[in-house]
Amino acid sequence: MPAISFQSVSKAYPSPRGPQGSTFQALDHVSLDIEEGEFFGLLGPNGAGKTTMISILAGLTRASSGRVTVLGSDVQTDYADARRKLGVVPQELVFDPFFNVREMLRIQSGYFGVKNNDAWVDELLGGLGLTDKANANMRQLSGGMKRRVLVAQALVHKPPVIVLDEPTAGVDVELRQTLWQFVANLNKQGSTVLLTTHYLEEAEALCGRIAMLKTGRIVALDKTSDLLKAASSNVLRFKTGDALPIELAARARITGRIVQLPAHNALEIEQYLAAVRQAGVTVEDVEIRKADLEDVFLDVMGNTEEVGA
Ligand SMILES: Nc1ncnc2c1ncn2[C@@H]1O[C@H](COP(=O)(O)OP(=O)(O)O)[C@@H](O)[C@H]1O
Ligand SMILES: [Mg+2]
Questions:
Q1: Which of 238, 294, 237, 234 lies closest to 267 in space, CA to CA?
Q2: Cα–chain-centroid distance for residue 209?
Q3: Reduced to 3 states, what is the DSSP secondary structure of residue 88?
Q4: 18 CB under 6 A from ligand 1?
Q5: Are 217 and 229 in contact (CB under 8 A)?
Q6: Where is the composition biased (Polar residues) (predicted)?
Q7: pLDDT (tens digit, 9 = 90+) per residue, 139-150?
Q8: Residue 153 in contact with ligand 1 by CB distance below 6 A
Q9: Disulfide check for 27: which of 11, 97, 122, 275 has CB 3.0–4.6 Å away?
């Protein structure tokens, strides 16, 4: 039984522009099974539909069509069971400013009917570096600390399936490391993890499998290692202050003075360098590196072909 199953899920929102009654298709027949024990990454640019998928999974939004289950429980017809099996860390920071951290976690435990879990709450506080904030009011905490409380809150009922929606957006390096250590450990002990993130190096390091979402459709779905293998194997990187010849500029990723060109083989690299020389472009700091997940991502997102729709 999959931990999470999306079966041909579509979601139409009322269109903010356009004529009365028109809709906007945020998800278009998304099918995806995540197996128990996976550390799964859901990637995609802003507006791709990641949060919509998670909202449907958490029962906060209804799918327009299709079906979603959590360990066999349907998120609509079996809402309470499905919800109990899930720990969701939302993208937006929402909390009640009047309670302290420990009270928040007690209330959340009560919501799931969990009693006598003080030992687990202490473990959560410790693992997330919150022990000395246990009695602090939510409104006194920094953004990063609030984020930690949200994570603790999601895990207070020991859910077997953990969902994190951009948990590290705008948080410092220290919290990212604390968080990943903690979540990776839960995954080792058997929890299934579904993660959305903008930090592709995090996804590359943590996720065994990855789906890439673009305008509501899955455009890539594979083991992380296979996604990396299938990509252009190398990237030629150099710095220049000059304008590139058009055919190179069209293929390059340019960030300020840094130019990066995906290459499939040594010949392609030679051709790039020859073209640069011929155009009289001065280059510095030339290097060739292996393609990483960001290269794969940009490749996939620039390409309109779809798989597994
Ligand atoms: N409540 C809503 N009403 C109308 N449109 C929405 C709503 N929520 C999200 N959308 C739209 O659906 C698309 C997907 O949004 P979202 O799921 O938040 O994407 P992501 O999390 O990948 O950035 C976006 O175009 C967004 O503007
Ligand atoms: Mg989102």
A1: 234
A2: 12
A3: strand
A4: no
A5: no
A6: 1-10
A7: 888 888 888 999
A8: no
A9: 11
Measured distance CA(97)–CA(172) in Å, rounded: 22
For 45-74, how does the pLDDT look when each residue is reduced to its tens digit (9 = 90+)? 999 999 999 999 999 999 999 999 999 999
In angstroms, what is the span from residue 53 Cα to ligand 1's centroid?
10
66 Cβ contact list (under 8 Å, min separation 6)? 6, 7, 8, 9, 10, 29, 30
Phi, psi of 75 (to 5 degrees): -70, -15
Token couple for 301: 């997102």
For the full predicted model, state whether its pTM sits above 0.70. yes
Query: Which residues share a beta bridge with 254?
Result: 259
Ligand 1 pocket residue status of 49, Cβ below 6 Å: yes
Give the per-residue pLDDT at 303: 56
Provide the phi-psi class of 230: left if phi over 0, else alpha when psi is between -120 and 50, else beta: alpha
Name the token pair of 248: 């190179």
Per the CB < 8 A criterion, the answer to whether 295 and 235 are in contact is yes
Task: Please check the confidence at residue 95 and state whether its pLDDT lies above 60.
Answer: yes
Collapsing DSSP states into helix, strand and coil, what is residue 71? Answer: coil
Closest ligand to residue 15's CA: 1
- Return the percentage of the chain with pLDDT > 90, whole number: 67
CB 48 less than 6 A from any atom of ligand 1: yes
Distance CA 45, CA 289 (A): 24
Where do the structural domains in the chain lie, given as residue ranges?
4-85+159-228, 232-290
Coil/strand/helix, residue 133: helix
Instruction: For domain 4-85+159-228, give the CATH number.
Output: 3.40.50.300
